[in-house]
Specification:
Shape: globular
Number of helices: 5
Number of strands: 7
Helix content: 25-40%
Order of helices and strands: HHEHEHEEEEEH
Number of domains: 1
Structural class: alpha+beta
Largest sheet: 5 strands, antiparallel
Strand order of the largest sheet: 2-1-4-5-6
Strand content: 5-15%
Length: 223
C-alpha cells in the first residue's frame, strides 16, 4: 500500500521568510535615524544660519574703582578661577584676544571712553564685530546647536570673555530681542538670555573651547 505524500507546510515557509527579510531593512532604518539625529541643529539655532550676528570681546574682570587723585594701579587680585585659567595657558587664547590686565605686568584695563556705554549683560565691551562670513556663521550655530558640545558645569562662576548676539526669527509682527550668549572660557561656562537654552548643561567641553577660540580668531584677527 502506497503512503500519501505530505505537502510542505506553507506556514513554515512563510515563517522562514518573515524571520529573514526584515532584519537588513530594520538595521538600515535605525542607522538612517541615527545619522539624521546627529546632524540636526537644536532650536532655535536650526533657524539662525542666515541671521545677523555680532560677537563681543568682553572685560571678564574689572579692577576696583580708583579715585582720580590716586596713583595708577599696577595690578589687582584676580578671582581664583581666572588665575587658574591664566596659569593653564588661558585655553590657548592668543594674547591679542585676552582681556587687558590679566597677564602679570600688563596694564590694568582703562576706564571706558564712553562711560555711558551699555555693557553686554553686565560686562564691559572691549571690541565688537558683526559676522558677515557665511562659514563663520555656520560654525557659530554648529557650536551652539548641538548638545554634545556641552557638559555639566564644573563651577558656577561667570567671567565672560566673549558675547554672542544672534537675531531671532520674528514669530509675530514684533521682532523678538536677539538671542544673547555669554561665554566664559575661564569658567568653562555659558549663559543664555532672551531665549530658552535647549540643553540641561551649560558647561563647555574642551573641544567647544577650541571652536570658540577659532571663531574669535577669524572674526577679530582675520585668521
Amino acid at each position: 500500500m502506497l503512503e500519501p505524500r505530505l505537502r510542505p507546510s506553507r506556514h513554515r515557509r512563510t515563517g522562514a521568510r518573515r524571520a529573514w527579510t526584515p532584519a537588513p531593512f530594520a538595521a538600515a532604518a535605525l542607522s538612517l535615524v541615527a545619522m539624521t539625529g546627529c546632524s540636526t541643529l537644536s532650536p532655535p539655532f536650526d533657524k539662525m544660519k542666515d541671521s545677523q550676528m555680532t560677537i563681543y570681546r568682553l572685560q571678564n574682570v574689572e579692577p576696583p574703582p580708583v579715585a582720580q587723585t590716586s596713583p595708577a594701579v599696577t595690578g589687582f587680585q584676580l578671582p581664583p578661577q581666572v588665575q587658574q585659567w591664566i596659569q593653564a595657558g588661558a585655553s590657548l587664547l592668543p594674547q591679542g584676544l585676552l582681556p587687558p590686565g590679566l597677564l602679570p605686568g600688563s596694564a590694568v584695563p582703562a576706564a571706558p571712553v564712553m562711560p555711558d556705554a551699555v555693557p553686554f549683560h553686565g560686562f564691559r565691551i572691549i571690541e565688537w564685530q558683526p559676522v558677515n562670513d557665511p562659514g563663520v556663521k555656520n560654525d557659530i550655530v554648529e557650536t551652539f546647536g548641538h548638545s554634545s558640545n556641552f557638559q555639566q558645569a564644573a563651577t558656577s562662576c561667570m567671567f565672560a570673555e566673549f558675547g554672542f548676539s544672534i537675531a531671532q526669527a520674528p514669530a509675530s509682527p514684533l521682532s523678538p530681542p536677539p538671542a544673547d550668549i555669554l561665554v566664559s572660557l575661564s569658567c568653562e561656562q555659558t549663559q543664555a538670555f532672551n531665549f530658552n537654552w535647549p540643553y540641561g548643561q551649560t558647561g563647555i567641553t574642551p573641544d567647544t573651547t577650541k571652536k570658540i577660540v577659532s571663531i574669535a580668531q577669524r572674526v577679530f584677527q582675520g585668521h
